[in-house]
UniProtKB/TrEMBL annotation:
Pfam families: LacI (PF00356), Peripla_BP_1 (PF00532). This is Transcriptional regulator, LacI family. CDD domains: HTH_LacI, PBP1_RafR-like. Keywords: DNA-binding, Transcription, Transcription regulation. Residues 20-74 form the HTH lacI-type domain. GO terms for molecular function: DNA-binding transcription factor activity; transcription cis-regulatory region binding. The lineage of its organism: Bacteria, Pseudomonadati, Pseudomonadota, Alphaproteobacteria, Hyphomicrobiales. It comes from the Bacteria. SMART domains: HTH_LACI.
């Protein structure tokens, strides 16, 4: 800050504890309030040196735009709402998703607001609240169903949104997804290459879109490699971990025990391993296990597991970019992307 700014700081109208405003920055820089406002918005007619000067003072003062004022002037909240189930996978999913979104929003005027909910309750409640209160300019949702009423409602209300997953309901909308069909097919292929013949799949809940994608890849793999399915009954990745462990132990002790298992969830895989070992079976010898994970940790505890990473941080970045672009009017069919599986561990060395 130059000498003139320092002198003005000594006579600053900002009282102790008072929130800095555009008027404060204008006083500190000797510029007009309109110039300060346009500099903070990166207006093309404001010089680079002036913009840097204004931003420096704003940062030193801890200036934040008043959202209520912004909304009154523009009708915008500068908020992106992430509606995320509190039951999402514990092993890094939520934090990585938030990190990815935040990395993109950091360079914009938008702020992230996390709206938690439980999937055991009506998933429409948080979306209706956002729509009825106008509390966000855009929304990101997960746990997508093939025919998702949240998607239909937001499309009808012209709310910009992006989904972590795909629908099958005739509505074109922004999304980012992981290719679970390709993952499960490649997992079956891997188990077939190890000589495994009896394969079990621990799937996501049947109500979600990626259940269908997973089953498609699984059934295609079984047919292509002439393998047999061992049913996991009603167990899914959202079954209580203790129940997954108990069911797996019983299954592995039975005459119908699989010699290969595929898991869609890293957290659930820990319970699978516990059940396998409780049954006296050895991972990598009696049974091979392939798992998807959202953070690299499974191979730290069991290097015998074959793992594929889903980069949830990347998903967060893609979703943030998609919803901002949709707010700016980009066509939804241009804002759709799918990540391919990336193998992080091919299991123990041969």
């Amino acid at each position: 800050m130059d000498d003139s700014s320092t002198k003005r700081a000594a006579k600053s109208p900002l009282a102790a504890g008072e929130r800095p405003t555009l008027k404060t920055i204008a006083y500190m820089t000797g510029l007009g309030i309109t110039t300060v406002s346009r500099a903070l918005k990166d207006a093309p007619d404001i010089g680079t040196e002036t913009k840097e000067r204004v931003r420096l003072v704003a940062n030193q003062l801890g200036y934040q735009p008043n959202r209520a004022g912004v909304r009154l002037r523009t009708g915008k909240t500068n908020v992106i709402a992430l509606v995320l189930s509190i039951e999402e996978e514990l092993m890094g999913f939520t934090s990585q998703m938030v990190f990815g979104i935040s990395e993109v929003l950091a360079g914009t005027q938008y702020h992230l607001v996390l709206t938690p909910h439980t999937h055991q309750k009506d998933p429409m409640v948080p979306v209706r609240y956002i729509l009825d209160t106008g509390s966000a300019d855009g929304v990101i949702i997960s746990r997508i169903a093939p025919d998702d009423p949240r998607v239909r409602l937001m499309a009808e209300r012209n709310m910009p949104f992006a989904t972590h997953g795909r629908t099958d309901m005739g509505i074109v909308h922004p999304y980012h997804d992981f290719d679970n069909e390709a993952f499960v097919y490649e997992a079956v292929e891997k188990l077939a290459s190890k000589g495994r013949k009896r394969i079990a799949l621990l799937p996501p809940p049947a109500t979600l879109s990626f259940y269908l994608h997973s089953r498609t890849g699984f059934e295609r793999g079984l047919a292509d490699f002439d393998l047999t399915e061992v049913s996991m009954g009603r167990i899914s990745t959202e079954t209580i971990l203790g129940d997954i462990r108990t069911y797996t132990e019983t299954l592995m002790r039975s005459a119908n025990a699989p010699d290969g298992i595929i898991s869609i969830s890293g957290s659930s895989t820990i319970a699978l391993v516990a059940g396998i070992e409780a049954a006296g079976k050895k991972l990598g010898k009696d049974v091979d296990l392939v798992s998807k994970q959202s953070a690299e940790f499974l191979n730290w505890i069991r290097p015998e597991i074959y793992t594929v990473n889903e980069d949830v941080r990347h998903s967060g970045r893609e979703l943030a970019k998609a919803v901002i672009a949709r707010i700016d009017g980009v066509a939804p069919e241009l804002l759709q992307s799918i990540s391919k599986p990336t193998w992080s561990s091919m299991g123990p060395k041969e």
